[in-house]
Design brief:
Layout: E1 3-5, E2 12-14, E3 16-19, H1 32-44, E4 49-51, H2 60-69, E5 78-83, H3 95-109, E6 114-119, H4 127-143, E7 147-154, H5 159-164, E8 174-178, H6 192-197, E9 201-205, H7 226-241, H8 246-256, E10 262-266, H9 270-281, H10 286-296
The structure holds nicotinamide-adenine-dinucleotide.
The site of nicotinamide-adenine-dinucleotide has 27 residues, from strand 8, strand 10 and helix 9.
């Protein structure tokens, strides 16, 4: 496993990291024991950064992750969780909720310290509230030594400068972007020089496009329009026709970018996490990658958006 610095946080994170949304049944009902074995396998393979949220499975992901981490030395991994989103359509970015949310997350995770605390999916928030209320409450937790570093997550890319331009550098130390640096969409790349100048570490998620670049395809709730789903399916079928594994290629593509500190992958299968780590440690077949990128070219950077109207990216459907 290779490790990279996460911006200026001082955290050295594994280039492939573990996303715990499947532990909250995000993609399918899972077996808890399998989920726990997956986390332990990830740690055994050198993954040292774990991401969850009270939103995933409405606290189930944090609870199962907490069980998986029982007895594991706290200093052997970095833990990220979030606040502000609590189940489908339930948002609360108030200062009062910041403190209660954080304490509840710690209890479920069996710790009193969170390495990276994110404000979850800020496209759904009033950015005045984030700047004037949510972040100041989060800063208090950092000043109290309960949180190492603060982050923001979101789907539209414009939400990051919208906040970062309004707070002193160093306030926000990491961002988590998803579905925007993968084989079919490299929109995040244009933002990397800005984030680097600000000293903000980049966490990439959903290199498979939340499952679109896997044999199983995306879940029923996947928000991409049919053209994007069909375009990704063509790439999946192309890989299958030449005996290649699209998920392995998708992870290799994301992890290869030196400007991205880490790429989260979600799975509740020990076999899949083993396969994923093996994939990023294997040499990349650049010829195959070029062919798959060509198959995806008709939908390259076509995206989907969400959130408040003022927070949405311009759309290429
Ligand atoms: P992902 O790209 O990791 O895809 C997950 C899907 O891929 C699941 O269906 C999983 O079963 C499947 N998969 C994983 N490995 C596989 C393999 N080897 N073979 C076949 N299928 C495989 O997308 P994701 O789960 O959305 O993102 C990863 C993590 O990033 C999440 O768990 C979460 O922690 C984080 N995330 C955060 C946000 C946010 O903060 N807003 C958004 C998206 C993701």
């Amino acid at each position: 496993m290779h490790y990279r610095q996460l911006g200026r946080t001082g955290l050295k994170v594994s280039v492939l990291s573990y996303g715990a949304s499947p532990l909250g049944n995000a993609f399918r009902p899972i077996d808890e024991g399998e989920g726990i074995r997956t986390v332990r396998t990830a740690l055994d393979l050198g993954i040292n950064f774990l991401d969850t949220s009270p939103h995933y499975g409405v606290t189930r992901s944090e609870t199962v992750l907490g069980r998986a981490l029982q007895g594991v030395p706290r200093e052997s991994y970095h833990l990220a969780t979030k606040l502000g989103q609590y189940g489908e359509g339930h948002f609360d970015f108030s200062a009062a909720r910041v403190a209660t949310s954080f304490n509840e997350s710690c209890r479920r995770l069996g710790t009193d310290y969170i390495d990276v605390l994110h404000c979850h999916d800020i496209e759904f928030a009033d950015h005045n509230q984030i700047v004037n209320e949510t972040l100041p409450a989060m800063i208090k937790l950092r000043e109290a030594g309960r949180v190492g570093h603060l982050g923001l997550t979101g789907l539209p890319l414009k939400v990051f400068p919208s906040i970062l331009d309004r707070v002193p550098d160093g306030t926000v130390e990491a961002v988590l972007s998803f579905c925007r640096y993968c084989l079919n969409d490299t929109g995040l790349e244009a933002l990397l020089p800005y984030l680097q100048k600000k000293g903000v570490g980049v966490i990439n998620a959903s290199a498979t496009g939340m499952g679109l670049l896997t044999g199983r395809g995306g879940p029923d709730w996947h928000p991409a329009p049919p053209a994007i789903k069909a375009g990704c399916r063509r790439a999946v079928e192309y890989c299958a026709s030449v005996g290649a594994d699209i998920t392995s290629l998708a992870l290799q593509f994301a992890v290869h970018h030196p400007g991205i500190a880490t790429t989260l992958v979600g799975t509740a299968s020990p076999d899949n996490i083993r396969k994923n780590v093996a994939a990023i440690e294997a040499p990349i077949d650049f010829e195959l990658m070029a062919k798959v990128l060509a198959v995806l070219q008709p939908i390259h950077n076509h995206n989907f958006t969400r959130g408040r109207p003022e927070n949405r990216d311009a759309l290429i459907p």
